[in-house]
Amino acid sequence: MGCINVDGSLSPVALQVLRALAASTEPVTGDVVARVTGLPVYRARASLRELQSAGLVTDESGAPRLSALGQARLDAAAAQRSLSAI
Fold first, then answer.
1. Could you give the domains of the chain?
2. In Å, what is the CA distance from 64 to each residue of 79, 80, 86?
3. How many CB atoms lie within 10 A of CB 73?
4. Strand partners, 57
5. Integer CA distances (angstroms), 54 to 4, 6, 84, 85, 86, in order
6. Which of 2, 31, 65, 71 has the most CB atoms at less than 10 Å from its CB?
């Protein structure tokens, strides 16, 4: 299962990973993302690589961080979720 769906939307796993990065004030490792999200370590690391390739995550000295584009996509997903709840 990839992080970016065919229609360009983010998968549930991608949203989990991006939320974990957004919640952290410090750069974190893939192991920390796995622990916070409950994902297997291999899945968290693969998701981080895919999200980095998509420009949603940056790499700061080996530690992933949420990019401005990633934050914008996370905000858009939250807004969409709010609209669908109405």
1. 12-84 (1.10.10.10)
2. 24, 25, 34
3. 23
4. 66
5. 8, 13, 26, 28, 30
6. 65
pTM here is: 0.87
Angle of helix 30-37 relative to helix 41-53, nearest 10 degrees, comes to 110
For every residue of the chain, which 3-state class applies, written as one string? CCCECCCCCECHHHHHHHHHHHHCCCCCCHHHHHHHHCCCHHHHHHHHHHHHHCCCEEEECCEEEECHHHHHHHHHHHHHHHHHCC
